[in-house]
């Protein structure tokens, strides 16, 4: 399995809305999206059985969301609950990039979206657009800061979506596992990650896929601070510790 996948917007079409699949798991579908000036996304639509999240990486998106209009800037999160009509356009100068997450992925052979009429409204009414910088954060480990962009408390019951900032030299996390899938998307800097018996150094626009039960640890060796998006899919139940510490070491023995 490839634990690290690189979003490469330069390989996508330069004259239209285009997207690159990064991870298609049982728990979620993640794509990187590129939209140049003047592009339009899909016609107005909704997703009947999937919540959707955007995180704007660069540029700006003009978003119509259940009849409300937003000018969404880089560094913003968008939550679109299942059944909510929406449409994206890109009238601003420059190129827009965003991460698109669907929870859960649509079943094979089922249409990705349902067309929505111009005046159609729907969904539970919990959609939102928020600038990550406006969301309070906390230090969860020395030099390791976290902001919660979406979780069950904000209406997103299928994931916990977070923004992490790790200072250079922070001790990071020791070996541990999760009962859920965890994914990182690197925004800035570099993150050193040990995944079972493999070491990777993830940098800007890398998606790191950590399936449930896989031992891993991470740290920022520098230079400078590192920031990444975090997806926990599904979000752990209330009162359940998300991390389980483990002792991990390769023995060198082979059984083949």
UniProtKB/TrEMBL annotation:
- UniProt entry keywords in alphabetical sequence: Metal-binding
Concerning Gene3D superfamilies, the annotation shows: Jelly Rolls (2.60.120.10)
Entry annotated with the keyword Transmembrane helix = no
**Which domain of life does the protein's organism represent?**
Bacteria
Q: Name one GO molecular function term.
A: metal ion binding
Q: Which residues form the Cupin type-2 domain?
A: 36-89, 163-225
Name-wise, this protein is Cupin domain-containing protein
User: What species does this protein belong to?
Assistant: Amycolatopsis pithecellobii
